[in-house]
Design goal:
Oligomer: single chain
Helix content: 10-25%
Strand content: 15-25%
Number of helices: 3
Shape: elongated
């Protein structure tokens, strides 16, 4: 027997309001599925899709070509690994929204992994965007082919940051 989520009073199942506490009752279909929640590209502000670079998971924007990588993925990547992007089924079905206009890169980006602010950081020979909270990396479209050039610099920056905040006091 259904019951009110607020007061736990028994219901018939066809009420729009709880007769006891007057809470609005919304009809929910039994087989509703949420699906995958996509985050937005920090530049384009439209969904960024899961993809693969070799055997590693990453996120790829179908419009600007930007790519985002979690810290764990970058720390596992090796210089000799395959660095070719494979887009997923969801991105293959991508259609440019009718309202979409290409935009310039904003002054700072919002991390597609954790939603915090990203900061511009020079890693190796190029400028990248690094999340200040989760250390995710976002590369503008076309820069993903240079990931080997920045991989060593990224790992050193992460290791130095974790060593500096490791709890030891400096004198």
């Amino acid at each position: 027997m259904p019951e009110c989520p607020r007061c736990k009073d028994p219901l018939n199942g066809d009420e729009k309001f709880c007769p006891n506490c007057k809470k609005v009752l919304l009809a929910q279909p039994e087989s509703a599925s949420v699906g995958i929640k996509l985050t937005n590209c920090p530049v384009c502000k439209i969904p960024i899709y899961p993809g693969k670079m070799g055997s590693y998971d990453m996120l790829h924007c179908a419009e600007c070509g930007g790519t985002a990588y979690k810290r764990e993925v970058l720390m596992k990547m090796q210089l000799g690994d395959v660095k070719k992007i494979s887009i997923g089924d969801m991105e293959r079905d991508h259609r440019t929204p009718p309202f979409f206009e290409k935009r310039d890169k904003p002054p700072f980006l919002i991390c597609p992994v954790c939603g915090k602010k990203m900061a511009a950081k020079k890693l190796g020979p190029m400028q990248t965007d690094l999340c200040t909270e989760c250390s995710a990396l976002f590369l503008d479209g076309g820069k993903e082919k240079h990931i080997n050039d920045i991989l060593g610099s990224y790992k050193m920056a992460i290791m130095n940051a974790s060593r500096d905040s490791g709890g030891r006091r400096r004198r």
